[in-house]
Design a protein that fits this description.
With 458 residues, the chain is of the alpha/beta class. The structure holds uridine-diphosphate-N-acetylglucosamine and calcium ion.
Length: 458
């Protein structure tokens, strides 16, 4: 098996981003652009990655702490050939090297694989694409037989060469041996005074090595990001691809243009997702799930037939089959709802297990608690889980009924069938099937008179 080494160029400043952050750390679909490239490479198996850093090098390095990743610094950005030169000492002698750009985030593993397939002793692989508007890119020059002979940069091209529509994407693959032979021969005698990696192509041809082109499946794969506008455009392209895939697999989207996945969304069939929903991290959705508008679901799973109503936020939680959540509910980390459970508007939950058929329908905070089955939590109930220093648990047995506006001071246990009168402050355990009344007794005052308006201070 061939050893593959990936060299990822990430030294550029990204002046047009107007940012203190290195360009490759700007995020697309919730992950840095460089992370996208690294993920694509990792999908092809374990291999050495050499990231060439420059601007903001320490910031980049601290984000990619991985045994298979090595960083080399390019102190001055003298061109793409110079950048790859920095990586030479780190390459394995017998490796095939793939050069990728940290600011070209949507490259697909399958494309890299096809590029690798054309690399041999007498051939190198070059990823090219034909564009309607080739402006700014290096042009691919071919001879009368159609063989690639060189790449000429926009600023060095003749007016005839400028009409060529096939351009260099920057991605190429060749043996480390060849790279070591040819790189030192590249000079900076050109319009930009830079060491061009693209000069490698003519050197290969001189050495009788064929330059074989491979094309990506879509243009988005090789699109680079130089500005925040381009970043936003590529984000939309990416999200549209995600939306299409989801619809193809059986989920209806109210509007594929108002849908965002920032991570991995796995969904069954016959789901409906309304507009402006955001899915972050790893989210799993069963079948026949309805998600209302403006929901944000993060690292959670939603069971079959569940309904998530408008403006609900669900984070690191599990929603059981047929449960109904929202509108305006907030499930914080550690919330697990059983089947047929209900969490309604303006309810906040945290680290709570809610049994099958239990309901917290209105205006409540329930944290650090365990609810059995068919528990009913009245409007405005608060679990007082925090004594200012420590957190304590609230345990509610099956069939417990908590009246509205109650405060449950933890640690507290209400046993099976226990009933809390509305407006109670419960501080001691409630035995099974008992009624707890924890409020001041009502007094009615006979002959009381309403105050009357005082006319003197008019
Ligand atoms: C390069 C190619 C061009 C191709 C285009 C595709 C060369 C000479 N030209 O041009 O043929 O069509 O990409 O987008 O290679 N970088 C470094 N160190 C450097 C210089 C660049 O790390 O010293 C990195 C940049 O951060 C960037 C990438 O290399 O990620 C490309 O550099 P850039 O200056 O944008 O090259 P282009 O002029 O776009
Ligand atoms: Ca560029």
């Amino acid at each position: 098996m061939t050893t593959i080494n990936y060299v990822i160029l990430a030294a550029g400043k990204g002046t047009r981003m107007r940012s203190a952050k290195p360009k490759v750390l700007h995020r697309l679909a919730g992950r840095s652009m460089l992370q996208h490239v690294v993920t694509a490479v990792d999908a092809l198996g374990e291999s050495k990655k050499i990231i060439v850093t420059g601007h903001g090098a320490p910031l980049v390095e601290e984000q990619f702490d991985d045994v298979n990743t090595l960083f080399v610094q390019q102190k001055e950005q003298l061109g793409t050939a110079h950048a790859v030169q920095m990586a030479l000492p780190a390459l394995c002698d017998d490796a095939v090297v793939v050069v990728l750009y940290g600011d070209v985030p949507l490259i697909r593993p399958a494309t890299i694989k096809r590029l690798l397939q054309v690399v041999g002793d007498k051939s190198i692989g070059l990823l090219t694409i034909t564009l309607d508007d080739p402006q700014g890119y290096g042009r691919i020059v071919r001879n009368s037989t159609g063989a690639i002979t060189s790449i000429v940069e926009q600023k060095d091209a003749s007016s005839e060469q400028l009409t060529i529509n096939e351009v260099n994407t920057g991605v190429l693959a060749l043996s480390a041996k060849q790279l070591r032979q040819w790189l030192p021969k590249i000079d900076n005698n050109n319009a930009q005074g830079e060491y061009y990696l693209t000069d490698l192509i003519a050197l290969a041809v001189q050495a009788d090595v064929a330059v074989l082109s491979v094309n990506p499946e879509t243009a988005a794969e090789v699109e680079g990001v130089n500005s925040r506008l381009q970043l936003s455009q590529l984000e939309r392209t990416f999200q549209r691809q995600r939306a299409l895939r989801l619809m193809e697999s059986g989920t209806t989207l109210a509007d594929p243009a108002r849908f965002d996945v920032r991570g991995e969304l796995v969904a069954g069939t016959d789901n409906f997702i309304d507009i402006n929903c955001i899915f972050e991290g790893t989210v799993t959705i069963g079948n026949n799930v309805t998600i209302g508008p403006n929901c944000c679901i993060i690292n959670s799973s939603i069971g079959d037939g569940a309904q998530i109503k408008a403006n609900t936020i669900i984070e690191e939680s599990v929603v059981g089959d047929q449960s109904i959540v929202g509108p305006f509910a907030r499930l914080r980390p550690g919330t697990t709802l059983g089947c047929n459970a209900k969490v309604g508007n303006f309810v906040e939950t945290k680290k709570v297990i809610v049994g099958d058929g239990s309901k917290i329908n209105h205006l409540s905070y329930v944290g650090d608690a365990q609810l059995g089955e068919n528990v009913n939590i009245g409007a405005g109930t608060i679990t007082c889980n925090y004594d200012g220093v420590n957190k304590h648990k609230t345990l509610l047995g099956d069939g417990v009924f908590v009246g509205s506006n109650s405060t449950l001071v933890a640690p507290i246990q209400i046993n099976q069938g226990g009933f809390v009168a509305a407006g109670s402050t419960v501080t001691t355990a409630v035995p099974a099937d008992s009624l707890a009344v924890g409020r001041a007794k009502q007094r009615n005052i006979d002959g009381w008179r309403r105050p009357v308006k005082n006319n003197r201070d008019k």
